[in-house]
Write a structure and sequence with these properties.
Strand 25, helix 19 and strand 26 form a beta-alpha-beta unit. The protein folds into three domains: 243 residues, Glutamine Phosphoribosylpyrophosphate, subunit 1, domain 1, CATH 3.60.20; 183 residues, 3-Layer(aba) Sandwich (Rossmann fold); 148 residues, Rossmann fold. By secondary structure, the protein is an alpha/beta fold. Helix 13 runs antiparallel to helix 20 and helix 17 runs parallel beside helix 20. The chain has an eight-stranded antiparallel β-sheet. Strands 5-6-7-8-12-13 form a six-stranded antiparallel β-sheet. A five-stranded parallel β-sheet has the order 18-17-19-20-21, with helices on both faces. It contains 20 helices and 26 strands. It binds 5-amino-5-deoxy-1-O-phosphono-D-mannitol. 5-amino-5-deoxy-1-O-phosphono-D-mannitol binds next to helix 9.
Length: 607
């Protein structure tokens, strides 16, 4: 979950590396560092905290050199301080790493016995010492790197630089992504193509088990048996622009406000509004014939999948198994050849989701990836890419990617329903016309922001918050709690409203705000009963409902946020918005770092 960069260039590389690291800061922002070969010696600058601290350090104390490596860190082993920041050195070796070296403890004790002294608590430092030990044993740099790589277990993307050679970086990939960028008399290495976009759009993605010898004028790629391998060189579509916040205070705020537009773009990709049909996509499975759909994802993307389960089962009578990917990948789920599998991910790089995708590939199941980053590993490895057209999502908290994932899933469920004969032509037209209302209604919902900001002012004083919902509002309750936790650090739980009396009701007292997500749907009255149970115990209810719900609820609430009445199919998409705004404004009142909350990273490429 760190970002790594390497450049074998022909002008001073430190500023270029920092520029590339800015595009990778979504992968981690605990500390950052750059190393170059300066006047024949390894030199580095590192700084705790965000990249801006490293920039200040470099301004005060610049680094020269036309070859260099850089890193932005999300800490796994060792606290996020300068000592643990990458690059790590050992004698003549400098190294940056993304991933986890699983056998680092045994390697470390072995290296310590050989006299190596560790200056950090990281797993990465063992790699630097391993390469250095191979050099001491007489290996040439490339061979030393290869011998060290063969001793590693775990997940890694690595860039290794050697003091004696200012025309060499060795890159290696086993798990986390790594891209080589081809330039004119200069070469690049980066965690993704976007990082390298200002330098080149000619990209070769390394595959798992690949390692590359990168010099100014050529690149050789090998597998782990040391055999040369050919990898496709392709034109990247990555943009070199760093997205800005426009007039918004935070990226997250901008991304919330972009939703009417990106929902509309995404829906337009999957449904034909003019004819009122869900488009027949070129899928590697036939919805009419599959007997099960497996969905897997992490975090907010998982919750989009959970909403999808309700839709696929209700609209298409298609049974869905859904798991968080960290469980899916290890639970050895039996999966029949008549199944299809869907993986949902904004980044397309989440390690657990990718491993689950590979599990299904091994089982011979056709695979679709609902991804936002079209050049991601999941997009490349799936049989079909089902893109969300959300545009770059920079805020660590997922907002517009979520509602676009829901838009894809609603369209697919309608398509599946038609293919399986559960949705008649007329019904399909009605449903597609209802989807067409989503963007317009999203604009109206966003206008509730001032009221939601006032509600957030009170919520910011809470220690715990409970979110309740039934049916598709249950995943939204989970999403509301997740958003509030990750942004404001207030403890929050999401529950299926009917489950309240089976335990969590014990928590209710006059200090516990309970956010109830309850449009006036077929089970509204059931949810009202659950609200009565909360009210009877002094709980303070914040009700998010529609005009009919507000008119039909006899309960006294602390606040009622009233959305326009809307068709059931688009409700999960639109009810996500107040939930996002509530978490956003609570975090703003609390003064937390909204776009880069503590301990998190946008792309989670470790287990
Ligand atoms: O890139 P992905 O969609 O695979 O990421 C999955 C989760 O890490 C992500 O949704 C996370 O839960 C967000 N911080 C939620 O806002």
């Amino acid at each position: 979950m760190c970002g790594i960069v390497g450049i074998v260039g022909h002008s001073p590389v430190a500023p270029l590396i920092v520029d590339a690291l800015k595009r990778l800061e979504y992968r981690g922002y605990d500390s950052a560092g750059v190393a170059t070969i300066e006047h024949g010696a390894l030199a580095r600058r590192r700084a705790e905290g965000k990249l801006i601290n490293l920039e200040r350090r470099l301004t005060a104390d610049p680094l020269d050199g036309t070859i260099g490596i850089g890193h932005t860190r999300w800490a796994t082993h060792g606290v996020p301080n300068e000592t643990n920041a990458h690059p790590h050195f050992s004698d003549d070796v400098a190294i940056v790493h993304n991933g986890i070296i699983e056998n680092f403890a045994e390697l470390r004790s072995e290296l310590e016995k050989d006299g190596y002294v560790f200056s950090s608590q990281t797993d990465t430092e063992v790699v630097a010492h391993l390469v250095s030990r191979e050099l001491r044993r007489g290996a040439r740099p490339v061979d030393a790197a290869f011998r060290a790589l063969k001793q590693l277990r775990g997940a890694f993307a690595l860039a290794i630089m050697f003091k004696g050679d200012d025309d060499l970086i060795v890159g290696a990939r086993n798990g986390p992504p790594l891209a080589v960028g081809h330039g004119e008399g200069e070469m690049f290495l980066g965690s993704d193509a976007i990082a390298l976009a200002p330098f080149t759009d000619s990209i070769t993605y390394l595959e798992d088990g690949d390692w590359a010898v990168i010099r100014r004028n050529n690149i050789q790629i090998f597998d782990m048996s040391g055999e040369p391998v050919e990898r496709l060189r392709r034109q990247s579509i990555g943009t070199s622009f760093l997205v800005d916040k426009g007039n918004h205070r935070h990226f997250m705020h901008k991304e919330i406000h972009e939703q009417p537009e990106v929902i509309s773009h995404t829906l337009g990709h999957y449904v034909d509004f003019t004819n009122g049909t869900a488009k027949a996509l070129d899928l590697p499975w036939d919805f009419a014939k599959v007997d099960r759909l497996a969905i897997s994802a992490c975090g907010t993307a998982y919750l989009a999948g959970l909403v999808g389960k309700y839709w696929f089962e209700r609209l298409a009578r298609l049974p869905v198994d859904i798991d968080v990917a960290s469980e899916f990948r290890y639970r050895e789920m039996p999966i029949s050849k008549n199944s299809a599998a869907l993986f949902v991910s904004q980044s397309g790089e989440t390690a657990d989701t990718l491993a689950s995708l590979r599990y299904c590939r091994g089982e011979g199941v056709p695979i679709g990836a609902i991804v936002n980053v079209r050049e991601s590993t999941m997009a490349r490895e799936a049989d079909v890419i089902l893109p969300t057209l959300a545009g770059p999502e920079i805020g660590v908290a997922s907002t517009k990617a979520f509602t676009c994932q829901l838009s894809v899933m609603a369209s697919l469920a309608i398509r599946a329903g038609v293919a399986r004969g559960h949705i008649a032509k007329g019904e399909e037209q009605v449903l597609v016309r209802q989807l067409a209302e989503a963007a317009r209604l999203a604009t109206q919902v966003i206008k509730l922001e001032d009221q939601i900001e006032k509600v957030a002012r009170d919520l910011a004083h809470s220690r715990d918050v409970l979110y309740l919902g039934r049916d598709t509002n249950y995943p939204l309750a989970l999403e509301g709690a997740l958003k509030l936790k990750e942004l404001s650090y207030i403890h929050a739980e999401g529950y299926a409203a009917g489950e309240l009396k089976h335990g969590p009701i014990a928590l209710i007292d006059e200090n516990m705000p309970v956010v109830v997500i309850a449009p006036h749907d077929r089970i509204f009255e059931k949810t009202v009963s659950n609200m009565q149970e909360v009210a009877a115990r002094g709980g303070k209810i914040i009700l998010i409902t529609d005009e009919r719900g507000a008119a039909n609820s006899t309960l006294e609430t602390l606040d009622t946020i009233v959305l326009p009445d809307m068709p059931e199919i688009i409700a999960p998409i639109l009810y996500a918005l107040p939930v996002q705004m509530l978490a956003y404004h609570t975090a703003v009142f609390m003064g937390t770092d909204v776009d880069q909350p503590r301990n998190l990273a946008k792309s989670v490429t470790v287990e």
